[in-house]
Design goal:
about 425 residues, Arc Repressor Mutant, subunit A, D-Maltodextrin-Binding Protein, domain 2, 2 domains, two-stranded antiparallel ribbon, 15 helices
Length: about 425
């Protein structure tokens, strides 16, 4: 956690606070006010600062108010006073302590931190898109060389990193909007973007689930794929379930609470594909339809906070929250554009950056990622997706397929 400056006392209770008869703050007087500002340097990700949650996170991480004050670069007296003022605003105790024990966040404070974090992470793709749009306010005014490329893509942690990289390396601004794979391809068809991003497992056989969902939106004569990256998807569980969960069937067998992704997302298609592979119906997963999140990070946070027990996502998201990760499948992450736009200057700049050595280095530093075979190269749909037209002859008996992803345990056996 980087040291942050706690705002001055004037930032608390800027207006008189109305209280009820018991002295508690009237709930209808507490509102959320969003602001943004300009400052030196680039902001990565979708961070939203809030003094209350910075204080509570520091106390929880540091283990005491004294250490939290040191972490924040403030005095003990000021941090203690700030917490007391926030208790007045919320009408709830935030800190508890007993004789001989260090002050700790109350149960209410801990729930507040988790709830705020879940809400913020659910909105992460939208916050990133908003920050990206606002970032263009100054960039567009200053840079006459900068190209703009509109992108709609399935959520991926590597794309915001690519966005920053191409801005610095090629004066190219990626206007990224995150949505499910199908919705991204639909946006490309409707000319709402120039590039769409989607992901599929590196399957060699026919996949009816992916084929049915993607074929209506991808035409070999109309579209060209752009090689981007490969990544690992797998099961995310807390440490206490690490020894129990090795595959999706274990989640169904143990009736663990499962968090799913939204319909139309590539990960939802992957879950359906795995269910079909194991001859399981969706109702075997507790939470298949009842609990849905829209990003890998939101799924990981739900597992880490104990709201659910398991979910499917990328390794980088699992590690971000200290979760146990069970790899299941390697995926190709493709970018796609109309064949008529391949020679557009913005598309050519993007392809050039993807083909450069720096992009390979960046992916090498992201857990669970690696470069595509030839990043930036143009691929024909029916060649890059071998299951696109392939069907198994009826007279040929079905052969037994190996697991989608295998890794060595170190003793010569695969898991």
């Amino acid at each position: 956690m980087e040291p942050v400056k706690v705002p001055p006392e004037s930032d608390f209770n800027e207006q008189p606070t109305e209280r009820d008869k018991e002295g508690r703050v009237a709930e209808n007087r507490i509102g959320v006010h969003l602001r943004y500002g300009f400052g030196p340097g680039e902001q990565s990700g979708a961070a939203l600062g809030n003094p209350l949650f910075e204080l509570l996170a520091a106390v929880s991480e540091a283990g005491s108010i004294r250490h939290a004050a040191k972490l924040l670069g403030s005095s003990y007296r000021y941090v203690w006073g700030s917490l007391r003022k926030w208790e007045g605003v919320l009408g709830e105790p935030l800190i508890t302590w007993s004789q001989g024990q260090k002050a700790r966040p109350t149960e209410f404070a801990e729930k507040l931190v988790w709830a705020e974090r879940r809400a913020r992470i659910r909105m992460q793709p939208h916050i990133e898109a908003l920050r990206s749009d606002l970032d263009r306010v100054i960039a567009d005014a200053r840079n006459t060389r900068q190209q703009l490329l509109s992108v709609r893509a399935s959520h991926d942690l590597a794309l915001p990193v690519l966005q920053q990289h191409v801005a610095q390396a090629a004066d190219l601004h990626l206007d990224i909007g995150f949505q499910g794979s199908v919705d991204a391809l639909r946006a490309l068809k409707d000319r709402k973007c120039m590039i769409a991003g989607f992901h599929v497992p590196t399957l060699q056989d026919r996949s009816p689930i992916f084929g049915k969902a993607l074929k209506p939106w991808l035409k070999p004569k109309t579209h060209k794929l752009i090689a981007c990256s490969r990544r690992i998807q797998g099961l995310m569980v807390r440490k206490e379930h690490a020894a129990l969960v090795r595959r999706l069937t274990d989640i169904a067998r143990l009736r663990l609470r499962f968090v799913n992704r939204q319909p139309g997302s590539g990960t939802r298609m992957l879950v359906d594909h795995l269910l079909s592979e194991h001859a399981l119906t969706p109702d075997r997963l507790s939470g298949y339809t009842d609990h849905v999140e829209y990003t890998h990070v939101a799924v990981a946070l739900c597992v880490a906070s104990g709201v659910v027990d398991a979910g499917v996502g990328i390794e980088a998201a699992a590690l971000q929250f200290g979760l146990h990760f069970v790899p299941l499948v390697e995926e190709d992450y493709f970018l796609v554009c109309l064949a008529t736009n391949v020679s557009h200057p913005a598309v050519e700049r993007l392809r050039g950056v993807l083909a450069g050595p720096r992009w390979r280095e960046i992916l090498g530093g992201l857990p669970g990622y690696r470069p595509a075979a030839a990043p930036g190269s143009l691929l024909a749909i029916d060649e890059a997706l071998p299951w696109w037209l392939r069907t198994r002859p009826k007279s040929t008996p079905a052969r037994r397929r190996p697991p989608l992803y295998q890794r060595s345990r170190g003793d010569g056996q695969s898991v």
